[in-house]
Design goal:
The protein is 13% helix and 45% strand. The protein has three helices and six strands. The protein has a six-stranded antiparallel β-barrel with strand order 1-2-3-6-5-4.
Length: 119
């Protein structure tokens, strides 16, 4: 059974996502910020479970975390881009882990986010 319909049925809302290309350092030595792309996703955002909390790295355990179930691929930090930032209740949350679950008639993503500290 595909969870595509379940995610749609139990979605908690539409959320904004900001994807940023990594900062570059041209020959002049000054940092040049990457371009950003903003888009919306439909998702179900849930509290992180105790089982999920056990497998997180030590630094992540101290952060406030959530799990996002969505049909849209979210990205963590990788070559050429920064981690996606999801806006939940007007607050930025940074994606730090993404898993894809494939089933016979499609698949969905399970992304872990942590509240982004804003100085």
């Amino acid at each position: 059974m595909a969870l595509n319909g379940v995610i749609t049925r139990f979605m908690t809302g539409t959320y904004g996502v900001t994807r940023t290309v990594a900062t570059t350092y041209p020959s002049g030595g000054f940092a040049v910020g990457g371009a950003t792309l903003t888009f919306n996703i439909d998702a179900s955002i849930q509290p992180i479970t105790g089982r999920d909390l056990k497998i997180l790295t030590e630094a992540q355990r101290a952060e406030e975390s959530r799990v996002i179930y969505t049909l849209t691929e979210l990205k963590t930090r990788g070559p050429g881009y920064e981690p996606d930032v999801v806006t939940i209740n007007s607050e930025p949350w940074t994606v730090f882990k993404v898993e894809f679950y494939e089933v016979i008639s499609g698949g969905h993503y399970r992304a872990y986010v942590a509240r982004k500290v804003v100085p």
